[in-house]
Write a structure and sequence with these properties.
about 210 residues, Rossmann fold, two-stranded parallel sheet, about 20% strand, alpha/beta, hydrolase, single chain
């Protein structure tokens, strides 16, 4: 069964994840990938996300893609119980995942049934392609000068728009809807919402 939990701000919807997991999270190991945030001046959401996971009883193993060899990354991703990718620059994230072939490892693991948590950029790259984010400069693509294409993990057949209606992405989110509403299956979510996928079942839930 393919399972995903996609959100804009994990700390704001962590209670939904606990329900979504449908198992005791105590002692479960989660591979925590903060790579997308490396180019960002503001990174508070990384600490908040990690804290929320630890408060749920999980063991957080940080996997910074740019710092570890592919073999070590692969080993961690195969052994962990869950895979989590934080927010940040979508294009820099894709560049680094592709550079070491980690995108393919993650995709395979999720398709084998490992639960994937994608926050903001991590939610965007679950789609077939992140090209739709380029048109409104949602993230500065110049941060990823070696990225040759925007093909993503292709874990879902829709395209998430994170932070929909939330500052400072409100206008950009609305612009994406205007440009692609008739071309792509878009799912806009606010900071207080999450998309929960179990195979072909897709639910959008609001945090309390």
């Amino acid at each position: 069964m393919k399972r995903l939990f996609l959100c804009s701000s994990f700390a704001d919807v962590a209670n939904l994840f606990v329900d979504c997991a449908k198992e005791d999270l105590q002692g479960k190991i989660i591979a925590f990938i903060p790579t997308a945030s490396l180019t960002e001046p503001i990174r508070f959401y990384v600490k908040k996300g990690k804290k929320a996971l630890e408060e749920a009883g999980m063991i957080v193993e940080e996997v910074e893609i740019t710092q570890l060899p592919k073999e070590e990354i692969s080993s961690i991703l195969h052994k962990c119980d869950y895979i989590y990718i934080t927010g940040g620059n979508t294009f820099f994230l894709l560049q680094e995942l592709k550079r070491k072939g980690v995108d393919k490892i993650i995709s395979k693991q999720v398709k084998l049934g490992k639960l994937y948590i994608g926050e903001s950029a991590g939610a965007i790259i679950a789609s077939p392609d992140a090209e739709y984010m380029k048109s409104v400069n949602f993230d500065p693509i110049e941060k990823a000068p070696e990225l040759k294409d925007c093909t993503s993990l292709d874990l879902v057949d829709f395209y998430t728009i994170p932070h929909y209606g939330n500052f400072p992405f409100k206008k950009k989110g609305e612009k994406i809807v205007q440009l692609y509403n008739e071309k792509l299956q878009l799912i806009p979510i606010s900071n207080k919402q999450a998309v929960i996928i179990e195979d072909s079942n897709i639910q959008i839930k609001d945090a309390k």
